[in-house]
User: Fold maleylacetoacetate isomerase from Spodoptera littoralis.
Amino acid sequence: MSLSFKTCSIKLKANNSQVLMSRLDTFYLLSSGSRITTINNTTIGNAENRAILYAYWLSSCSWRVRAALHFKGIPFEERSIDIVKTNQQKTEQFRAINPAQKVPALVIDNVTLVESMAIVQYLEDTHPEPALTPKTPVLRARMRELCEVVVSGIQPLQNIGLRSHFDTTEQYTKFTKYWTDRGLKTLEDLLQKSAGKYCVGDQITLADLCLVPQLYNAVTRHALDISKYPTVSKLYESLLKENVFKETHPESVKSKM
Assistant:
């Protein structure tokens, strides 16, 4: 399914809005096309009010945002940015969207947001229901602890962009596995104190949205055995069955590209 620009244009609040809109249009024409996100074969939202998520199907950071949008029922269209084969993130067209030249980026409410945790917090602030944060200060702190371990302690050291800085793939793999294992051990200890049905009690939170994508990459991309972390692995297997992760799973996204 395709959309013309007449049905999905975005008005940006900026003095150079026409210039930026032109750049967005140009990039869209250069890209492989857009996808309309669906749930149960039903298109989400109308073209004129749908947010635009610039993402890569296998990116854990993109999956966090995709899952948050889905969980909150926010209409969105996903546009694929190939960060592996064609390096679309390094084009000047995409730099106009995200100066850091990485995914994800989200255009919503007449603003462009970058950095996955900033984006999901914005979605939580502007669409508080259904909530992705616990009600009490202590539980919110527990959630943030888990998020930080993933976002600061695992994801950057698992990033595929690091590979070119090692002489051999073996060196890169050894480095990544060592630091990911350290992070998973920390997660195991923390989750033993906070977990219920989900990472923090019996409510899906931002911690779950951080955990699942990162573990998926650890297992599928880096061939890590997470069974030695029983709390982590049990939660991971259980969470993969939740609709928020089934509907936004990388393989599901890839099949619609």
About this structure: DSSP finds ten helices and seven strands in the chain. The chain has two domains: 5-130, 137-245.
